[in-house]
Amino acid sequence: MTLVQEAFQEISAADFFYRNRDIAGFTSPSRALYSTIRELVENSLDACETGGIPPDIYVRVSLESGPVDGPGTYVVRVEDNGIGVPGDIIPSAFGQVLYGSKYKLRQTRGTFGLGGKMALLYGQITTHSEATIASSNNPRKRIVEYQIRIDIQQNKPVIIKHKQRSNPAHWRGTIVEFRTEADYSRAMAKILEYMKQTAIIVPYANITFVDPRGRLYKFVRGTTKVPKAPTETSPHPHGVDVETVQRLLKITEAKSLQEFLRSHFQRIGETTARKFLHYAGLGQKKTPRNMGPDDVLKLVKAMKSYEDFLAPDPTCLSPLGEELLATGIKKELGVSQEQIDDGTAFVTTLQRKPDTYAGFPFIVEIGLASTKAIQAEGRILLFRFANKIPLLFDEASDVSWNVVNELIDWRNYRVIPGETPLAVFVHVCSTKIPYKTVGKEFIADRPEVEHEILNALRESGRSLKIYLSRREHLEREKKRLDVFEKYLPKVAVFSTRLAKEKKEPDVKQLLKGVMKYTAEEEGEEATTRGSTAEEEQA
Fold this sequence. Notes:
By secondary structure, the chain is of the alpha+beta class. It is 40% helix and 19% strand. A hairpin with a 6-residue loop joins β1 (56-65) and β2 (72-80). α13 (447-498) packs antiparallel against α14. 37% of the residues are buried.
């Protein structure tokens, strides 16, 4: 009998994602180009928002070799005016997978410290070329530039060239440029849709895109107001596990468990800590240094089951806000304030109060828009966003799709799906978005998130119902007025002849009376419906 020996080996993080790049969204030349642009633009937006800077993002994709309609070698260049990257950090920040600034408990677009490096890694393995990174984090200092490759087996950056150059324009920001295999003709529609939706959810950004055919697309900002940057926070006791607590116990300088809880977890004061330790059955003699494995497990289980902790602190979140969301929607749908005032268009936005799932805070923001410019296409248009990222793929797997298409009865709001022009915008922001995949394309149907989206749509749907009712009423009255305008002059002529009078009656006064009656009737109806909506809400 022959013994078979299995060979074992260890691979690096870069090697793992090199072998399994599909899970990060790099499945084909077209999808890879979309993922590349998306990841680099999101890094740029994060860099700007962290410093409270209205973003100016420049993206250029140039065909270097290959057919215009099909896979070829392209050069991708992304520039921003963000806070920049320190010179000594650049090689690792762009050449080491799973290295970055995303591993903090605060809201960021990035989650895994992976996307930007995957874009460079994909470019390297498909074109065998290096990436050029230039950055300045101080307008008064020189620009630092690197040419790097990724050592895939060691997961380390390989510096090909390093230099510094003068900065006479006092520029601050980052430039990333590299070659990659791509298929722009197939990716074009998704890339442009991504740009448009980014302009909705980031209305304070200027985005310039130059495509391989030389076409220039500009998405101009509608405001310079940038949301408050999220702050880093401590973990909430409901959202931790044994490993997290074990790590905290190793680094803590606290002398007692009470002090440990107050120092390393959010929203725990002296009274809460004392009550919790009594609930957990951990006596005063226990200290962070003499906690054994069974004690740690007991502590974590008690944290999960204790119901008197305060809700997580939402200051670590940076929602867009109702005003900015409305600005983005109006800007990209081409809706003016005049259209809203005269009733030909409708836009409403709503931000829910912070809630939590599994100890992580989240906020749901909703926008509804109805205008003739919206093409119904046999369904309600759904725009999904997570931490200010447009989600374009796998729509039917997303929690928002389920709420909009399965849980809401739109007939209650005078909406006929597929006929009524309606766009729904759903934005979820959290320190930990419950994505189902590394590609960050759809949100899992967590009951707490689903419940908040449902309630937000119901609440904003009341305003939509009032608007649609008023619009239907106006359309009916317009048809009625058109009939009067068409036939009253004729009636006036015939009645004058029958009465053998010389002067025809002035029908304009009659038409004014009809219009006045219509306006008064409409006002009464709107007031009645508004009262009904308030009663429902109460």
